[in-house]
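Subject: sequence -> structure tokens, single chain

Hey, anyone have a minute? Need the predicted structure for the following. Not urgent.
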Amino acid sequence: MTLKIYTRTGDDGKTGLIGGDRVSKHHIRVESYGTVDELNSHLGLIRAQTHLDSVVQTLSVVQDRLFTVGAYLASAPGNKMILPELYPEDVTLLETEIDKFTAELPELKNFIIPGGSVAGAQAHVARCVCRRAERLVVYLADQEEIDPWVVRYLNRLSDYLFTLARFLDKSSGAEEIAWKPRG
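Reply:
Had a minute. Here:
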């Protein structure tokens, strides 16, 4: 039997959560996990643009963790299904990578304008999407109980993506574009 991509169950503007509840496709929970999915796609684009093994390895782990975040966010409150979890070590990995990159980068003295390299600019796009996901999850947390590790992970991930953008620019030999305000 072949699994069909279309089910027609969403034709009424609703979608199913893990646990069976159905909500509008514009529900904040759906917006949250949809934005995490969008972020994951941007990370795939970065992976496809770099040949730095350590970056590819870390991004592979991050993409897996974003599926964990997405599954958590796609679960109806009170759902009894056992789902993968985030752990403090997941945040620590990001902090360790940030510290490694920072040790190789010049001191940050200006705001950075994205565009030094294609991969670096893509990391900046991913950072912006990550911040949007974080804002949506915080909004959801104002309404429902959300595991605080989800917010922590997204917050640290956006820091990682900023530092990754700088590192990818440097690794490609591109100049960082410092913002120089008029004045």
